[in-house]
Write a structure and sequence with these properties.
This protein is an alpha/beta fold. The chain has two domains: 267 residues, 3-Layer(aba) Sandwich (Aminopeptidase), CATH 3.40.630; 111 residues, Alpha-Beta Plaits (2-Layer Sandwich), CATH 3.30.70. It is built from ten helices and 16 strands. The strands form four sheets. Strands 1-2-4-3-5-16-6-15 form an eight-stranded mixed beta sheet. Strand 3, helix 4 and strand 4 form a beta-alpha-beta unit. The model has no long low-confidence stretch (mean pLDDT 97).
Length: 390
């Protein structure tokens, strides 16, 4: 078996694959509330004859090969986004206010189609395949509790993918090491003393303090981070004040910190606290800084990222299997899987032409011709890891 034969097999079931994708597209759901989605996955696995287990809204399938070998896991995220899908799509979302605007319907479909092909090879498989249908990637994060529940026990390698509209159909990319940054939430509360705006000396203006704090925080990355290491600190909201003639006593600021290096992550979190506390002290105010730990950085195993690029080059040509130069600062909780076992996450081009609407856009329309490429690549990664691919 070689990767071109896998692609031919994936193309031969494309009608089935498209029906699956469109059925899933109609039922987008929130994280840990993917009840219809879970039921659809279970029914599809039942129809294929693949055994599975469930917990909360996730599904874990297992394909037992006839011969000894490694256990290789494939992951797909299953939740959607709170976006209203526009009119016009013949298989438009049936859940008002929800849409598969990040392509997770495509990811589930690739995994179900790959499961169909791999289950058909079970008598020749030199190892086992674990199928990870993961909830809540967009919200609370389903990967971490799945790992804690033991879904990676006995697993030797894990692979996942994400459709990307910045590439056309027939292109992929990935990189060794950091592919996605960590995602921490920053909540800052500045506390002053209220007073009349005509007598500012009688109070402590939380707005003035917050303004200086925001300006000072802009130096955290530019003056504390190695310029060769990606990092971003963005403050997205500020709220405070009641009236134009009343000095504000409380201001709340919310933001996010993204980093690609664990040591830099800890350094910048400490610097954020130091800057906020220093500015507050200088203004005579008080400050509470809450840093909520988010997803860890997604660190691809170098050998497994190289495997993705080698197989992609064989299937699509070297010019279409691209080594991504820089990591993304977007979060991706596949990171928790590759923290435990070797693996790689990669991107699948899904646009008919460029430019195209981005992920998380109501106008996202992935080209379904990318599906058999994703199926062939995921199957090839499994078989190559088992030593079965020509």
């Amino acid at each position: 078996m070689n990767i071109h034969e896998l692609y031919e097999q994936a193309q031969s079931i494309q009608d089935w694959t498209v029906r699956v994708r469109r059925s899933l597209h109609r039922i987008p759901e929130n994280g840990f509330e993917e009840y219809k989605t879970q039921a659809f996955i279970k029914q599809t696995l039942d129809n294929l004859g693949i055994p599975y287990s469930t917990h909360r809204t996730w599904v874990v399938g297992d394909i037992a090969g006839a011969l000894p070998g490694p256990t290789v896991a494939l992951r797909a995220d299953i939740d959607a986004l709170p976006i209203q899908e526009p009119e016009g799509c013949p298989f438009r979302s049936e859940h008002d206010g929800w849409m598969h605007a990040c392509g997770h319907d495509m990811h589930m479909t690739v995994l179900l189609a790959a499961s169909r092909l791999l289950f058909g090879m079970k008598n020749e498989l030199c190892g086992n395949v674990r199928l990870l249908f993961q909830p809540a990637e967009e919200t609370l994060g389903g990967a971490e509790p799945m790992v804690a529940a033991g879904v990676l026990e006995g697993v030797d390698a894990v692979y996942g993918l994400h459709v990307q509209p910045y590439m056309t159909v027939g292109q992929i990319d990935t990189r060794p090491g950091c592919l996605n940054g960590s995602t921490d939430e920053i909540n800052i509360t500045v506390r002053g003393i209220s007073g009349h705006a005509a007598r500012p000396h009688t109070g402590i203006d939380a707005i003035v303090c917050a303004a200086q704090m925001i300006t000072a925080l802009q130096t955290v990355v530019s003056r504390s981070a190695d310029p060769l290491k990606p990092a971003a600190l963005s403050l997205g909201t500020i709220r405070g004040g009641e009236a134009r003639n009343i000095m504000c006593d409380v201001v709340r600021i919310e933001g996010t910190l993204r980093t690609a290096d664990p040591a830099l992550r800890e350094l910048l979190k400490a610097r954020i606290r130091q800057v906020c506390e220093g500015v507050a002290a200088a203004c005579g105010a008080k400050v509470d800084v809450e840093i909520i730990t988010g997803y860890s950085a997604l660190m691809n195993t170098p050998d497994e990222a190289a495997r993705v690029l080698r197989l992609g080059a064989e299937l699509l040509g070297p010019e279409n299997a691209q080594l991504r130069e820089e990591p993304s600062m977007g979060g991706e909780d596949f990171s928790y899987f590759v923290e435990k076992v070797p693996g790689a996450f990669w991107h699948l081009g899904c646009s008919a032409s460029l430019p195209a609407p981005s992920l998380h856009s109501k106008d996202l329309v992935p080209d379904e011709r990318c599906l058999p490429i994703g199926v062939a690549m995921q199957c090839a990664l499994v078989l190559d890891r088992m030593g079965m691919l020509e």
